[in-house]
Amino acid sequence: MRRGSWVKSAGVLAMSGLMGCVVLAGCTPTSETTSATSTATVTVTASQPPGVSSASTTRTASPNPQRQQRTPEPVDPSQFRSGQRNGDDVYFTSPTGNIWCRFGSVDYSAGCQAKNAPVPAGADCRGNSMYPAHTLSRGFFLRGAAVMPACFNQGVFVGYEARALPYDHSISAHGYLCVSRVTGVTCFARSAHGFVLSMQEARAF
């Protein structure tokens, strides 16, 4: 689904009818894994002139910078508030634009959804004749201390002027916290529970 379609859908959705616009989801509440930095040893056989025996040398490879996890840098949530509706709510996207998130202060107004992501365990993503399963986005509600898997037929967490949260940055508002990584977005409810969302993973913890 293109961004334009999500934004249009979001304009249609009213919070009072939110649950009517969301395909039924499971409601079972459930730290981001830090990739280990390793040092690899590589053995290289050096070329020698004819008649001279080969010698083996050992080099130490530099750690892969993509495997290192930086401490996330907090951003100012006021820079991510929308002036067009729900002025106190915070909206943001992943840098790729695949994941859309929102921190609201009322029930069912916080969480993330992604067009390209696996179906979260416990979510009802069967769809219907109007909204087939393949058209639904996948994600999670954050509701107080609980995490609720869901599939969506509307842009529930889509903001009109949502900004991208850069990789290795975090944002918090209304008691919720999310961290943007190259590997996806990790969010926490008002508890130790949360979720990881990406093209490869949709997991509550």
Brief characterization of the structure:
This protein is mainly β and about 200 residues long. Helices cover about 5% and strands about 35% of the residues. The chain contains one helix and 15 strands; from the N terminus they run H-E-E-E-E-E-E-E-E-E-E-E-E-E-E-E.
Tell me what the structure shows:
The strands form three sheets. A seven-stranded mixed sheet has the order 1-9-8-7-6-5-10, with no helix packed on it. A six-stranded mixed sheet has the order 4-11-12-13-14-15, with no helix packed on it. Strands 2-3 form a two-stranded antiparallel sheet. A hairpin with a 7-residue loop joins strand 6 (99-103) and strand 7. The protein is built from one helix and 15 strands. Mean pLDDT is 77; it is low at 1-67. With 205 residues, the protein is mainly beta.
Question: What layout of secondary structure does this protein have?
Answer:
Elements: H1 3-12, E1 22-23, E2 41-46, E3 55-60, E4 73-74, E5 90-93, E6 99-103, E7 111-114, E8 137-143, E9 146-152, E10 163-164, E11 169-173, E12 176-181, E13 184-188, E14 194-197, E15 202-204
Parallel strand pairs: 4-11, 5-10
Antiparallel strand pairs: 1-9, 2-3, 5-6, 6-7, 7-8, 8-9, 11-12, 12-13, 13-14, 14-15
